[in-house]
Amino acid sequence: MRKGLLVAVVVVVSSVFFASVSMAAMEAKSDSLIRKNINLLNDKKSEHNAIVTLASLKESAIPALSETAKNQAAKVSQRLIVIELMGDTKSPLATDCLLETLKDSNVKIRRASAKGLGRIADQKAVLGLRDALADFDSEVRFLATRSLQEINDPSLGDVFMKLLDDPDARIRIAATYGLGNIKEEKAVEKLSSMVGDYNDDVRLALAVSLGKIGTKPCIPALNALLEDRNINVRKEALKSLGRIGDPSSIPYLIKISERDYKELRCEATTALGNIGTSEVVPTLKKLLKDEIIDVRLAAIRALAKIGDSEFIKDLEGLSQDESMKARKEAQIAIAEIKSKSGK
Predict the structure, then answer these.
(1) Which of 57, 181, 185, 232 could form a disulfide with 61 if both were Cys (CB 3.0 to 4.6 A apart)?
(2) What is the rounded CA–CA span in Å between residue 69 and residue 132?
């Protein structure tokens, strides 16, 4: 009995030992493979296959990639590829290395590091990225701002607000989106003052971000953006107003729903449905007979969303509509309204 037990113990210990040896051998083989492919990054013929292999190894490659990324003696081209691969892992395990290379003397390395930290979006990178906002290179500052935007840290409100005055439009854009992402209400006054910014993309970011913040003080600026020269800015302002759903925007929305570009009329009609007060109903009923099918469809859906049973008769009037899509949409809307009202 005791002899059998001793044999069993020996077998278990031996199994654990050989398993450990086997695992160590596998790890050594994997590390060797990683380092071999890192070296192949210097060979143009082998570079692509090496990148594919390293990318497939994901987090397991990070320790060896970090060594190369920080190695001042390595070729800059090799370090840049390695840093990009680390960012692509989206793993916080790469954060410390990229924060170190963010301070590198080579501006290309700093740019790649700032970009990679945005891909990872690790809260731990906030302080390092904030420091990078003082970099002499505008591209590093922009990439650092955009990476901070990706992290969505509520403590960054004041940082983003200061960046709204930056002469680089790309930085203003990223800062504006950043304020929208964290729903920074105290930034509304400053953001609202930017409706006249010369850059279309800044105003587009403004329309989106004010909608995300979504408070009543955002509405005057969004109403002003409905008159913007850029159709995409006007479209986003309409979406944001629809999301907020405040009745004070109704006159602006009615005006657009009745005469403007087709896609803007549709967005305005949808926004009216989101607001859903009795004031919008006559306009929505009128739009059921609009000559543009997409506007009619938007009006049908808007009335269905409001869901008053009095609309059923108006929707039934679409049974002879020339568009099969409109007829079908009206039937769906009627069913939805009846379901809501219990009829």
Answers:
(1) 57
(2) 18
183 and 265, same domain (yes or no)? no
Residue 34 lies in a domain: no
Helices (H), the chain: 2-40, 44-57, 62-70, 76-89, 95-101, 107-120, 126-132, 138-151, 157-163, 169-181, 188-192, 200-213, 219-225, 231-244, 250-258, 262-275, 281-287, 293-306, 312-316, 324-341
Amino acid in the structure at residue 204: L
Q: What is the pTM of this model?
A: 0.83
The SS3 assignment for 201 reads: helix
State the Cα–Cα distance between residues 250 and 242, nearest whole angstrom: 10
Mean pLDDT per 10-residue section of the chain, whose length is 343 residues: 51 45 46 89 91 91 94 95 96 97 97 97 97 97 97 95 97 98 97 97 98 96 95 95 92 89 92 92 93 94 91 90 92 90 65
* Residue where the block lists tokens 């929305």: 253
**222 shares its domain with 280:** no
Query: What is the CATH classification number for the domain harbouring 323?
Result: 1.25.10.10
